[in-house]
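User: Can you recover a sequence for this backbone? Please restate the input before giving your answer.

Assistant: Of course. Working from this structure:
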């Protein structure tokens, strides 16, 4: 039986890829064919709905994770990453339906993971470093781990946004339903938090 990695274990790329490969199907199972009143509702002002979150994941795959991986391999710390446009999903979702976005994310993620596998990364590569525009020096292992946790963050966010629609309906049970107690992840970053991911 596989054991979870210890904090001191080297990065296991196969486990990360395995997790990243499952996100499109998880989103598809949760969101496809839900009424728009579910997928286009927000928790509040300046927050994202499920439709926008899928667009955000597409934008991240298109412009961020693999591009930064390649920058680390080619330039190391000598060239900082291009800052991530946290609102770039507005271009991704323009004129599209949620089923179109889900299909696009599935095919894009599959292509990006194939590109990642084609890099034939070795354990030593995980210690290679790059320069994040806000965070400074980061390792390739940290970047790839962040990609996986970014997926999980937005899966959590979507479930929280959906649960929010029942916040009044559950009555006193809200005290027992942790998803209704979560602080939002979709609000704009605070001034002390780096704006670029």
């Amino acid at each position: 039986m596989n054991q979870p990695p210890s904090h001191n274990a080297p990065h296991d790329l196969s486990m990360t890829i395995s997790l990243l490969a499952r996100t499109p199907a998880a989103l598809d199972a949760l969101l496809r064919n839900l009424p728009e009143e579910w997928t286009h509702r927000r928790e509040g002002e300046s927050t994202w709905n499920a439709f926008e979150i899928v667009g955000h994941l597409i934008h991240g795959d298109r412009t961020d994770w693999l591009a930064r991986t390649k920058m680390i391999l080619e330039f190391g710390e000598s060239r900082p990453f291009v800052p991530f446009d946290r609102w770039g999903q507005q271009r991704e979702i323009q004129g599209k339906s949620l089923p179109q976005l889900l299909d696009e994310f599935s095919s894009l993620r599959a292509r990006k993971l194939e590109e990642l596998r084609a890099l034939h990364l070795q354990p030593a590569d995980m210690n290679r470093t790059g320069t994040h525009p806000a965070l400074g020096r980061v390792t390739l292992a940290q970047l790839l781990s962040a990609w996986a946790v970014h997926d999980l963050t937005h899966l959590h966010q979507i479930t929280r946004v959906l649960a929010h629609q029942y916040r009044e309906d559950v009555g006193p049970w809200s005290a027992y339903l942790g998803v209704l107690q979560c602080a939002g992840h979709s609000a704009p970053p605070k001034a002390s938090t780096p704006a670029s991911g």
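That completes the design. The longest strand covers residues 129-132.
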